[in-house]
Amino acid sequence: YYLTSNINETTEQIANRLLNTSSNNENKIIQVYGKALNGFSAKLDDQTVQDLKDNPEVKFVEMDEIISID
Q: Which of 3, 24, 40, 70 is 20 to 30 A from 10, alpha carbon to alpha carbon?
């Protein structure tokens, strides 16, 4: 998951740019969000997750999970 304050690029452009720096071709963007918040969900390898966490453009990285009110 990725959030940015960069207004010169769309969220999709940023997501693609960030993932294109990875050598793993199995990383895949699943969904891009750009209304209520700017970000994306993706299937990522461990190294790419760490690279995103270390990137100053990235506000936070969080693993997707199912949440229930039960």
A: 24
The pTM (predicted TM-score) of the whole model is: 0.68
pLDDT in tens, 17-36: 777 766 666 788 888 887 77
User: Reduced to 3 states, what is the DSSP secondary structure of residue 22?
Assistant: coil
pLDDT of residue 42: 85
* Three-state SS annotation for 1-54: CCCCCCCCCCHHHHHHHHHHCCCCCCCEEEEEECCCCCEEEEECCHHHHHHHHH
